[in-house]
Write a structure and sequence with these properties.
By secondary structure, the protein is α/β, with parallel strands linked by helices. It contains 5 helices and 15 strands. The chain has one domain: 4-Layer Sandwich (Purple Acid Phosphatase, chain A, domain 2), CATH 3.60.21. Helix 4 links the parallel strand 7 and strand 8. The two termini are 16 Å apart.
């Protein structure tokens, strides 16, 4: 079983932003911005995570963190290498591509559009789960480039395709055997550059490389140093997912399967 969350930036105040989630399994997130050697302020133009960011992720049971996104080079190639090395030292797998809990997870940055060799990359790596990072405004509907990339991932046989980067949630669906979540929104973000408090956690139960069950859990994102929380009732957020075209089953006050 794996949990997947959206955009995470710990900044100067958000070290403990994920520690109250108490999930029943390991978590995979998208880490926005490099890990800095000393504390540095962040802005929309450049994001910097604190020197102990990897340790905070590990404490929150984060098992893998995506670093292939539009803020990957905010501290140059040295910063990206430092971030990858810091994650590895804390036993957090940096994405790109990695084996996570026995399945292959691939993150691809779509900030510059669909990479010309994406179909080849998918065919070679054959990931179980594909994470797409987009550079897009916080809108509920996906960008055309994301739609094209998702089509390629589904055709490659990926069991789950999850998108993040716009900071907005999106619909969830099944297309054949593939689970698609069009936007996970924010999970924790310590920057005044985003105010989207809607987020989505996705829990995948995997058996022999197949998704046997997928569960959507709306959350309130931890913004500006606050903790991300699981609401006692999230009926409004689940209704939003349905209004976007999600077909949800087994719905309770806090989560739904699809």
């Amino acid at each position: 079983m794996l949990w997947f969350g959206g955009d995470v930036h710990l900044g100067e105040r958000g070290g403990g932003a994920l520690e109250g989630l108490a999930l029943d399994g390991p978590l995979v997130v998208n880490l926005e911005g490099p890990i800095a050697p000393t504390p540095r302020p962040s802005s929309a133009q450049a994001l910097f995570n604190p020197p102990d960011a990897a340790a905070h992720l590990k404490a929150a049971n984060v098992i893998a963190a995506g670093v292939e996104n539009n803020h990957a080079m905010d501290d140059g190639a040295e910063g990206l290498a430092r971030t990858r090395a810091g994650l590895v030292r804390s036993d957090v797998a940096p994405l790109g591509s990695a084996s996570v809990a026995g399945v292959t997870v691939l993150q691809v940055d779509l900030s510059g559009g669909v990479p010309p060799r994406l179909a080849t990359q998918l065919a070679v790596v054959r990931p179980t789960v594909v994470l797409f990072h987009v550079l897009a405004p916080p809108l509920y509907l996906p960008e055309p480039s994301l739609r094209r990339a998702v089509d390629l991932a589904v055709a490659s046989g990926a069991q789950a395709v999850l998108a993040h980067g716009s900071h907005a949630v999106g619909a969830v669906e099944r297309r054949g055997e593939t689970v698609i979540a069009w936007g996970l929104g924010n999970l924790a973000f310590d920057c005044d550059c985003t105010s989207e408090a809607e987020g989505l956690l996705v829990r995948l139960e995997l058996e022999e490389g197949k998704v046997s069950r997928a569960t959507a859990v709306p959350i309130r994102a931890g913004l500006r140093g606050q903790r991300a929380t699981l609401p006692e009732a999230s009926t409004l957020e689940l209704s939003l997912l349905e209004s976007l075209g999600s077909v949800l089953s087994n719905k309770t006050k806090t989560r739904a399967d699809w």
